[in-house]
């Protein structure tokens, strides 16, 4: 038994596609004459309209003092606060009797980039950086040791300041 | 009447304490810890820090809780506005010259200045325009460093060295804001008990060189244990970080060591972290599993007859000593433990407390269980014995015509001839008990896991016993101890749970029974 299909009769003005096509093409051509928003990454890294926020939390950087030594005193607060448990720290003593980190390693793969380490640091030594280009050829290169953290040159994050929530 | 109770009210909580109790101690009963620095229950009262000021009703001024004795009907308020204001003032003055170097200070996390400033100090300083006093770090003794900048002059260390150690080599030098703890120019802080000043120091002013920069206070796991340094049996806390023992500290026990341990005991922990441990059972020097090793050892024990000798380390737990004796009960049995002798070093201010010459934590326990001190004679006997059971690190080569069974943490040269080697846990890795020289049975607890397949000695021996005699296997140190208490006169009436953290004496009970 054939299924009975009722074909509705509609006026030509309601079934024609010409009008809709012209409408779509008009939108397309209108965009040809508007300013371009595409950024030519990686040749171009930031534009007037698009820059990375100063509060961006990217891979870490250890700040150094005037002699080029890391400012870290191995107090142990960052491994303690770190929710991802990605910081390894072994404290030691240098020739002058100062406390300093014998081993300081951050596993950037484990890191969740919360910025707590920067927030908790009493010496303003460890910082999360305004940086997002981190490609490497092997996984173990993502464990940054102290030397590498000190050698980073990218700007550091300003984090979010509760007393200035909008960053003004 | 000496045991008359005084009733008083502290922070609206009624408490009854014996006559002569200090307000600060009575407050602990009311659940209030009055902030204090110079007061320490183990030392004489000095009343110099003025930190424990509290309001006492009808007294004209605030009183220091550490030097005020309780009186009938006294009403003490520790949290009144006036008392809190006064204590905040004291803290503000203490912080004038205190360097806020908590990030590099070893005491951070267990510092009383940090705690009380956080609790009731001022949020900010009013002395920002003055520079802080600075004095360089001094080397006081073999294990003590003095950081004068952090010192709050509570004089606990001075009183300890003078009253308890009886060697007054340190004092408060200079006066006023120039005061510091000075050491006699020709003396060192090298008394055998001098390390206690590091624990007594409420701030990070006196530091242990051994622990310097090693770990942060909040990373440590703390386990109640017993010192293995000598037969005194001081109660200690083992501080472990990532399963490595990094520090030994005294655990208060008024019956044994009060609040102190000697430096020998304090530094006697490195062997607990040894890396050269046996990790698997060996049968004729081939690594195997527990099933094979135990059944081999059981076969040896079942097949042999005649004489048997047990040569044990004095660090063996009472439970293991008992099970070893029971295991060899079918033989003509001899047991002996080895004792290393050293110098005796008393702490003059505390009666009956010394680093004992006998460096054997469980010598008394071994004696009570029938082991003799005559190790040489037992070594001689073992030449002709059918079975020689050695527990941990014999210091002499063992020659025997029979079979050598070795239970040990490490495998020394002298145990290389063993038929079966069974790896056991050391004192930091198992539960058990020691009996100190005064006959006090004290428990120690597991602080870290044993390496590889190593098991507590009581577990190994009770497994063997189950295979040889069909006896029931002890699943815990508690079961082993309760079996011991049930069958040995000297230990009768004791139970593992009943020992608690402070231990129980056996002598009175054993004497009463005899």
What is this structure's SSE topology?
The complex is a heterodimer of chains A (168) and B (514).
Chain A: H1 12-15, H2 18-32, E1 58-62, H3 77-81, E2 87-93, E3 99-107, H4 116-120, E4 126-129, E5 143-144, H5 146-151
Chain B: E1 5-10, E2 13-18, H1 23-29, E3 53-56, E4 63-64, E5 75-77, H2 81-94, H3 112-120, E6 138-139, E7 144-146, H4 156-164, E8 170-173, E9 180-183, H5 196-200, E10 206-208, E11 221-226, E12 235-241, E13 244-250, H6 263-267, E14 282-283, E15 286-287, H7 290-303, E16 307-312, H8 318-327, E17 332-337, E18 345-346, E19 354-355, H9 363-368, H10 375-382, E20 387-391, E21 403-408, E22 420-423, E23 432-435, E24 440-444, H11 457-469, H12 477-487, H13 496-499, E25 504-505, H14 507-513
Parallel strand pairs in B: 1-5, 16-17, 16-20, 20-21, 21-22
Antiparallel strand pairs in B: 1-2, 3-4, 3-5, 6-7, 7-10, 8-9, 11-12, 12-13, 14-15, 14-22, 18-19, 23-24, 24-25
Characteristics:
heterodimer; A: about 170 residues; alpha+beta; three-stranded antiparallel sheet; two-stranded antiparallel ribbon; 5 helices; 5 strands; about 20% helix; B: about 525 residues; Ubiquitin-like (UB roll); Alpha-Beta Plaits; Rossmann fold; 3 domains; seven-stranded mixed sheet; five-stranded mixed sheet; 25 strands; about 25% helix; about 20% strand; disordered C terminus
Write a structural description:
The complex is a heterodimer of chains A (168) and B (514). The mean pLDDT of chain A is 90. Chain A has a 3-stranded antiparallel beta sheet. Chain A has a two-stranded antiparallel ribbon with strand order 1-4. With 168 residues, chain A is of the alpha+beta class. Chain A has helices at 12-15, 18-32, 77-81, 116-120, 146-151; strands spanning 58-62, 87-93, 99-107, 126-129, 143-144. Chain B has 514 residues and is α+β, with helices and mostly antiparallel strands. Chain B folds into 3 domains: 5-94, Ubiquitin-like (UB roll); 129-273, Alpha-Beta Plaits; 282-505, 3-Layer(aba) Sandwich (Rossmann fold), CATH 3.40.50.740. In chain B, α8 runs parallel beside α11 and α8 (318-327) crosses α12 (477-487). The longest helix of chain B has 14 residues, at 81-94. Chain A binds chain B through residues 73-77, 80, 91-93, 97-99, 122-123, and chain B through 102-104, 108, 137, 212-214, 216, 218-219.
